[in-house]
Amino acid sequence: MSNILYAIAERIRGENVREKIKELQKTQSWTRKELQDYQNKKLKELLSVAKKTVPYYSEVIKNPNPDAINSLPILTKEIIRKNIKRMFNPEIPKWKFIRYSSSGTTGEPVLLFLERSAVGYYHAAQWRGFSWYGIQPGARGIKIWGVPINLKSKIIEKLKDRVTHRIRISAFQLEKIKVKNLWNTILTYQPEYIYGYASALYLFACLLEENHLAGEELGLKLIVSTAEVLYEYQREKLRGFFQCPVANEYGTCEAGIIAFECPKGSMHITSENVYVEVVNDFNMAQGPDHDGRIVVTSLRNFGFPLIRYDLEDIGAFSGKECACGIRLPLLQRIHGRTSDFVLTNSGKKIHSEFFSYLNRELMARGYVLKEFKIVQKKKNELNVYLLKIDEVNRRAVDFISDTIKKHIDPSMRVTFEFVRKIDSEKSGKKRYFVNEIPS
User: Fold this and answer.
1) Domains and their CATH numbers in the chain
2) 274 exposure class (CB count in 10 Å sphere: 0-12, 13-18, 19+)
3) What is the DSSP string of 210-239?
4) Rounded CA gap, 29 and 100, in Å?
5) Each residue of 12-21: b (16+ CB within 10 Å) or e?
């Protein structure tokens, strides 16, 4: 029944995911030259359409030839904010768009609009990765993820979970769950996979182990880690406890799945959907095994093009080919997007992705903060840094404080400091939450 619901939902939304999965399963076995020719064709089409129809790009793009793409400026969240009304392709009807807010993991969320057909390709790339492990659309799954704060969004997410045949476990409330009751529910449900934040998956495995439960009883085909760097100690714990493969997924809501790990351990780039660059501080291309900023161009979103979009992550290409038989190019490594847990005196650990949902709620209420950073130096104390105070900041302060106390801990002490600049990490990335409590 859930398979039927999923198929109906994807067609109503104009995504046609299953057709696109079949398409991507064919292209993954193409030669590197065939993939490159296909990518250049899509890139040329995108640049030509953007130059012709999109006001922002009609000024920026001088030459729509793919060979000249590195002459275009890097696209940042700030540029999108300033030019958002000029980023649309007016030839595409507004009903064909899905409105998204980037997660704001750097403290700087941005409003985006994705074509429904593009989102279909993003989902298809994810399911293609799952298919490498024998998992098909509609398979039962467990998702350890964030839960929206407001009721309407909660209802929408519950419907999505129902249609996609998964049970959601709140990453914000892991230590409050009744472990054995949940375990019995999961055993009865018989999921094929578990999907979630790397650190939340690790904590979940630790909680089950502490309760003397055996992860291999689930008979999982796969655990998929996403949204954060997956450390080797986390991978070993998950693989050992659940006795199944652990795959890393690298993606964004802006461009979908950028890379997915195959059973041989290689991170294959979704080159049919994205054109990925790794650049240095001077925006010059980096060769294999040389770290740089990851810049991505979505080859599917012609309605709201994202060309040379800075993901604010650090990574490197691999010049090797994988023995798995999939011919897609490889990422050697990815740095960045590491989250921490908020710690309380009562012993609770709250996943810091909570602040991403808080940020979205701030935006929905009109409190659009350009940047913020939360630092924890002591248990039950959070220091919130906001850019130089203005009226929006003043109105947001009480909401931030009240929401933290309500959803994390009522005794949490929250202090605010208004600063002229929020410093970046050494990697160049701005993190929205940092736990500085000595280990």
Assistant:
1) 2-335 (3.40.50.12780), 341-435 (3.30.300)
2) buried
3) HTT--GGGG--SEEEEESS---HHHHHHHH
4) 32
5) eeebbbbebb
Q: Supply 298's token pair.
A: 């979505």
Residue carrying structure tokens 């709201």: 304
Residue-wise pLDDT tens digits, 6-18? 666 666 666 789 9
* 3-state SS, one letter per residue, for 57-83: HHHHCCCCCHHHHHHCCCECHHHHHHH
Residue with tokens 């949490």: 412
Q: Give the model confidence (pLDDT) of 162-183 as tens digits.
A: 988 999 999 888 877 899 999 9
What are the structure tokens assigned to 253, written together? 């809501």
CA–CA distance, 211 with 130 (Å, rounded to integer): 29
CA–CA distance, 47 with 65 (Å, rounded to integer):
7
Supply the angle between the helices 232-242 and 198-210 in degrees, to the nearest 10.
Answer: 40
CA distance 356 to 361: 9
Tell me if 175 sits within 8 A of 349, measured CB to CB: yes
Select from 260, 225, 228 the least CA-distant residue to 244.
225
Residue entry with tokens 């055996």: 214
66 CB contacts (<8 Å, ≥6 apart)?
40, 43, 44, 47
pLDDT at 102 over 90: no
168 contacts 194 by C-beta, under 8 angstroms: no
Task: Please answer whether residues 432 and 106 qualify as being in contact, where contact means their C-beta atoms are separated by less than 8 angstroms.
Answer: yes
> Scanning the structure block, which residue is given the tokens 């993190």?
431
Specify the amino acid at residue 266: S
Rounded to whole angstroms, the Cα distance separating 390 from 369 reads: 10
